[in-house]
Amino acid sequence: MFTFEVQKDFTPELNQLRRESFPGTLDLQTAVDEFDQDSQHGVLYNGDRNILAYCRFTPNPGGVFSSWARRVDLLPNTVDCVDLGRCLVNPEFRGQGLMEVLVLHSLLYAKKKNFLFVNGGVTPNRGMNEMIYDLGFEDCGAPVPFHQSNGKSGLIQLVTCDITLHGRKWESRLESIMENSFYRLEKKH
To answer: Exposure of 128 by Cβ count < 10 A (0-12 exposed, 13-18 middle, 19+ buried)?
Structure first.
């Protein structure tokens, strides 16, 4: 049904999908930023190899969230931490709960790679925030200004998840979702 793969290359297809998914916040010609080259990219595919969802894993120290928030004091920032960002669901497949499937696969990947913490950032008061808190993410201070390298800025709530405290529940939760959910895995027409 789903395949989750982590790759080194930020492909033209991922660039296009990121541009489409973050309208008005990324440069119109490219969605590439200074962290893509040193990051790994998680992709959730359906059986036809259509990209359902995407995320980026950025190593620490000096990850994207502490850098763009200009606050290295709020998040774990050592080699046993990874930033999970740029999470998106392909517009053709939205409204099916695939963001949770993507985040669960991402957390399990981080656990498999022996990271201790997964850092992230969410827009305050956004609908998906409840899901990430339920998976074990916790706020790191109050929302802070966020400054992307392309000059865009906004407010972000930095979050982190301690894998040692929450990692055991993710596999059974993903299995339960997959057994009890129906996904329309064809593109919308």
So the answer is: middle
Cα 63 from Cα 72, distance rounded (Å): 9
The DSSP-derived string for 26-65 is: S-SS----TTSTTSEEEEEE-TT--EEEEEEEEESSS-HH
The separation between CA 19 and the C-alpha centre of its own chain, rounded to angstroms, equals 15
Strands 81-89, 117-122: pairing is parallel
Q: Is the pLDDT of residue 26 over 90?
A: no
- Give the C-alpha separation, 94 to 144, whole Å: 28
Alpha-carbon gap, residue 65 to 148, rounded angstroms: 10
Asked whether the beta carbons of 91 and 143 are under 8 A apart, the reply is no
Amino acid at 4: F
Distance CA 33, CA 99 (A): 22
Whether this model's pTM surpasses 0.70: yes
Q: What is the pLDDT of residue 179?
A: 84
Q: Let me know if 10 is exposed, middle or buried by CB neighbors in 10 A (0-12, 13-18, 19+).
A: buried
